[in-house]
Amino acid sequence: MYKKSVIIVIGVVIALSLIGLAFQGFGAKNKGKVSQADKIAIIYVDGVIIGGRGQSSVLMEQGGTDQIIKQIHQARDDGSVKAVVLRINSPGGSAAASQEVGEELKKLRAQGKVVVTSMGDVAASGGYWLAACTDKIYANPTTMTGSIGVYMPYANWEELYKKVGIYQEKIKSGPHKDILSPERQMTDEEREIIQVMVDDIYNQFVDVVAQGRKMDKEQVKKLADGRIYTGNQAKQLGLVDELGNMYDAIDGASQLAGIEGKPTIKEFGKTSPWNMLFGPSEKISTLLEQFLLQKASNQMNLGVPLEATPEKWQVK
């Protein structure tokens, strides 16, 4: 009976998800009818910044930079969009991916669109790279930002491999083909090679910040030692323009774009059928867990008194 209930629940969720996809497809057909009212587009940058398409499923979508760039192009091509608010909630990620999106933001500004950053909980490292490519930056006083710097991780597991009896051999086309391999010590020459690469990317990062924030390069380097700053500290240091939330950023973007009255908001990004039907996934997950736990308790004897079980297991 318990297994049957689980199958029924899963079947209902899949059916409702498919209905949500159908509604979403219907909405997509009407996207061509663009209102001529002045709009502000909101583009979200959530999570680790990585290149490529990201990962998608029926219940959720985690887009890579390809999706973000696609949304930037959509905002660029929509004549009714006068400004874009880039809502960043990201600890950073790939330097190449951040650079790719940053260049597209510069092109968007060159097309005459105003681009304003709104920092959420965190907009650090690659997240700040993107922010530095926009016209104006808003942050909450407690936002974690900064982390201007570059690192390349490396782990040496040679001693661990010896303890468990793992020995690797390679036939290489060149002496540095297996650079950063974890089963051996890095040579001094290889360390120098990697350091030169890290310094090169770091200098590119500093250039982006110096140009975007109209700061002297040496001044940026004093701030760019990898440390993080609160939004309040970042404003005092010139890394942030204003303190405020996303709605303050929207108002600021509206003023910069010369929009009169209250602008229409156009949010970019795919909403999953799960969220369309049920709202935040945490809530429905909790309800589903409670339902399954109730069914399980009715079918199984725990073998111990209820008061002896952990409180979170008890069904009341």
Automatic annotation (TrEMBL):
Gene Ontology molecular function: any one: serine-type peptidase activity
Residue ranges constituting the Peptidase S49 domain according to the UniProt record: 108-259
Regions crossing the membrane: 6-26
Gene Ontology BP, a term: proteolysis
Signal peptide: none
Family matches, as Gene3D superfamilies: 2-enoyl-CoA Hydratase, Chain A, domain 1, 6.20.330.10
Keywords, ordered alphabetically: Hydrolase, Membrane, Protease, Serine protease, Transmembrane, Transmembrane helix
UniProt similarity note: Belongs to the peptidase S49 family.
Protein name (Swiss-Prot/TrEMBL): Protease-4
Organism name: Pelosinus propionicus DSM 13327
